[in-house]
């Protein structure tokens, strides 16, 4: 790995218009989005340095299709993009921190019967904690990423996080963990642009990653086999699959292999009495039991979320907002309030398949209010 030599030297330059020229650390994954974001930051007159985060202790040489984003090939793509842009480039080894804060957390959450979002945790713990903290310590003013989200600067000097213009690419949900201080040191140059325009711009700039497939799924599970990955870490633990009244319907090899709302792969021999499909309603790591039932048993009426993080002011008591409850879920109208340090959310209409461990992100229009981790849900009775 190439070591970073230190902070920029000399006073921060001032551009011709009298505004401050920022010293920007651009996180470059090796994909088209982060490359164009770095190019835009440099074109805006900022002093940009590119950095690729090595997050795997034993990176593969090449990507497997569009899965993952931490291979040696990706680091080389990022370096080539930095050369075209004309900015310095370095590789930072954050593999140990990533393993502790993201991978180990991911495994522990599944072992506890919860459903984590590793991308959200990576933003919270790696890109806007470990990376940003190191950047500030080295004299940089901001971290720039290729996330699709917008930052709005207010006359008061405060900043707001908003949804991206391209709703299909919007990533504000996984950025809802950022607090006001982190927003003050963040740049998201792509938030006002659609993905098609970004690829066209990359072509014009001569960036070889212009047609590179987007990374998706979980970057540290390159083959996409989440259950296999968890089995390697947690082993096999045979348990029962039961219905709501406790009747045994089948067996499983590990409760961690299931998520709330799952329908496929249940391996239940007998059909339901009403002939309708059954879904995972509950996962109990204590007795290693998975409970299944009808779809209406997934209807969530309210929820309690812990460890709230606010992008600005704490929500007012009994405030009206919309909430996004999954990474690709729809917004739903809610009432929300902070009670004893926890976020209590009442849904106007029931939402299905909401699992502890997922994040609830509150919005006021397009503005991100904040995020919290779902700890418990109140659901409609199966017999209702």
TrEMBL record:
<dbReference type="InterPro" id="IPR023382">
    <property type="entry name" value="MnmA-like_central_sf"/>
</dbReference>
<comment type="function">
    <text>Catalyzes the 2-thiolation of uridine at the wobble position (U34) of tRNA, leading to the formation of s(2)U34.</text>
</comment>
<keyword id="KW-0694">RNA-binding</keyword>
<feature type="disulfide bond" description="Alternate">
    <location>
        <begin position="122"/>
        <end position="219"/>
    </location>
</feature>
<dbReference type="GO" id="GO:0000049">
    <property type="term" value="F:tRNA binding"/>
</dbReference>
<dbReference type="GO" id="GO:0005524">
    <property type="term" value="F:ATP binding"/>
</dbReference>
<dbReference type="InterPro" id="IPR004506">
    <property type="entry name" value="MnmA-like"/>
</dbReference>
<dbReference type="InterPro" id="IPR046884">
    <property type="entry name" value="MnmA-like_central"/>
</dbReference>
<feature type="binding site">
    <location>
        <position position="146"/>
    </location>
    <ligand>
        <name>ATP</name>
    </ligand>
</feature>
<feature type="site" description="Interaction with tRNA">
    <location>
        <position position="358"/>
    </location>
</feature>
<keyword id="KW-0963">Cytoplasm</keyword>
<dbReference type="Pfam" id="PF20258">
    <property type="entry name" value="tRNA_Me_trans_C"/>
</dbReference>
<dbReference type="Pfam" id="PF03054">
    <property type="entry name" value="tRNA_Me_trans"/>
</dbReference>
<keyword id="KW-1015">Disulfide bond</keyword>
<feature type="domain" description="tRNA-specific 2-thiouridylase MnmA-like C-terminal">
    <location>
        <begin position="302"/>
        <end position="374"/>
    </location>
</feature>
<feature type="active site" description="Nucleophile">
    <location>
        <position position="122"/>
    </location>
</feature>
<feature type="domain" description="tRNA-specific 2-thiouridylase MnmA-like central">
    <location>
        <begin position="228"/>
        <end position="293"/>
    </location>
</feature>
<comment type="similarity">
    <text>Belongs to the MnmA/TRMU family.</text>
</comment>
<feature type="active site" description="Cysteine persulfide intermediate">
    <location>
        <position position="219"/>
    </location>
</feature>
<feature type="site" description="Interaction with tRNA">
    <location>
        <position position="147"/>
    </location>
</feature>
<keyword id="KW-0819">tRNA processing</keyword>
<protein>
    <recommendedName>
        <fullName>tRNA-specific 2-thiouridylase MnmA</fullName>
        <ecNumber>2.8.1.13</ecNumber>
    </recommendedName>
</protein>
<dbReference type="InterPro" id="IPR046885">
    <property type="entry name" value="MnmA-like_C"/>
</dbReference>
<feature type="binding site">
    <location>
        <begin position="27"/>
        <end position="34"/>
    </location>
    <ligand>
        <name>ATP</name>
    </ligand>
</feature>
<keyword id="KW-0820">tRNA-binding</keyword>
<dbReference type="GO" id="GO:0103016">
    <property type="term" value="F:tRNA-uridine 2-sulfurtransferase activity"/>
</dbReference>
<dbReference type="Pfam" id="PF20259">
    <property type="entry name" value="tRNA_Me_trans_M"/>
</dbReference>
<keyword id="KW-0808">Transferase</keyword>
<feature type="region of interest" description="Interaction with tRNA">
    <location>
        <begin position="169"/>
        <end position="171"/>
    </location>
</feature>
<keyword id="KW-0067">ATP-binding</keyword>
<keyword id="KW-0547">Nucleotide-binding</keyword>
<dbReference type="GO" id="GO:0005737">
    <property type="term" value="C:cytoplasm"/>
</dbReference>
<feature type="binding site">
    <location>
        <position position="53"/>
    </location>
    <ligand>
        <name>ATP</name>
    </ligand>
</feature>
<dbReference type="GO" id="GO:0002143">
    <property type="term" value="P:tRNA wobble position uridine thiolation"/>
</dbReference>
<dbReference type="InterPro" id="IPR014729">
    <property type="entry name" value="Rossmann-like_a/b/a_fold"/>
</dbReference>
